[in-house]
Amino acid sequence: MILQSENLMLRMTKPDDPELESLVQNAEELYNMSEVRLYPEGMPKEIAFRIEKDGKLIGEVRFKTVKWYNRKGELSIIFKKEFQHKGYGKEVLKTIMRYAFEKMNLHRLECEVIDYNEPSKKLVESLGFVLEGRLREGKYSDGKYYDVLRYGILRNEYEKEYNRINNND
């Protein structure tokens, strides 16, 4: 399956795609938005999309946890360092939100952002995600602990914000 945004292509892939594994292992800065199980039994364990620009891999967006019974999903986005801070995160997140609510029929989306990652906090808040909680010192990196912020958006919130989200860049 392929999702197309204005400038990027999101191509569904297998979670064990070697290029994606390398991207995740070598990433210094993650747009970490969180973990990986799909329900009910028989459903895939995760849904991952390659983010491509001009045919080249620039990142990945993944439904890391989808609980079909509760109709909620948790997202994670990662970009190669040279493609961060170029507006692609917003484009990808808008595309995947539309897919989650309109095609997957989810009721709720969630993500995690490390407290020091100001661009990611601004991104998710600009698209209607609401800060719902803080996991104190939930992430260890470079010898320090950082808080992890939990964000969420409900389907009805997305629907109210749809025109603003999709017409405001």
Helix percent band: 25-40%
Mean pLDDT value = 85
Name the overall outline. Answer: globular
CATH class: Alpha Beta
| CATH architecture heading | 3-Layer(aba) Sandwich
Largest sheet: 9 strands, mixed
Number of domains: 1
Strand composition percent:
35-45%
Compile the SSE list and pairings.
Elements: E1 2-4, E2 9-13, H1 18-26, E3 37-39, E4 47-53, E5 56-67, E6 72-79, H2 88-103, E7 108-114, H3 118-126, E8 130-141, E9 144-154, H4 155-167
Parallel strand pairs: 3-5, 6-7
Antiparallel strand pairs: 1-2, 2-4, 4-5, 5-6, 7-9, 8-9
List keywords for this structure.
4 helices, single chain, 169 residues, alpha+beta, Aminopeptidase, 28% helix, nine-stranded mixed beta sheet
Briefly characterize the structure:
The protein has 169 residues and is α+β, with helices and mostly antiparallel strands. It is 28% helix and 40% strand.
